[in-house]
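Recall the central idea of this unit: under ordinary conditions, the amino acid sequence of a chain determines the structure it adopts. In this exercise we apply that idea directly, starting from the sequence alone.
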Amino acid sequence: MNLREKIQSAYVDYVLSNDEQPKSVYAFTKKLKLGEEDFYSHFNSFNAIESGIWADLISQTAENVKSQDVFKHYSARERILSFFFTVVEAMKPHRSFINYSLKHAGKSFSTPTVLKKAKTEFESFVAEVLNEGIDKNEIADRKYFSKKYKDALWLQFAFVVNFWINDDSENFEKTDEAIEKGINVTLDLMSRGPIDNLLEYGKFLAQQGKEKVRFPF
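Accordingly, the structure predicted from this sequence is:
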């Protein structure tokens, strides 16, 4: 365990034991027999520790999923599903901390500060998957809407985490079901369908301009 991981582990142990952050960096590092400079060489605040834990969770999950040999053969839908199932597995050893972190982050319509770095990591992964999906015509390239796809998936992530925190089913089976249904519905909306054909037909009619339509009767 390196120094960064040691600080993270000690912080998690403290907040779960006391249900609050340490009173000061000085008191926290003194207990660890470290100098404050050791702390600040890795983190600038206690919130930064939480932010780093969340970001590491997402980035390590993305790396894990992408490192699998089968990943390159997956469709965009399968890659997104694989990520969500894998991240839930990665969260299980940290369930108490995640519960603490979300509780203390407060409820808001915007992304909590401790999750902003995690969101950046998440969006980097899904944007890569979605862009390749668009290139392969697995995902519909819709003007104005395509850039919002990653936001829809981030909302799915937020929903899944909150669902999982409250899931009392055996081995979190309901969460697995929620992921499968939610991601499939979301990806269905991102895929080509009747609405795309209607839009293309509308564009075709608009391109005809002032040309008169002659009926054979």
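The first helix runs from residue 3 to 18.
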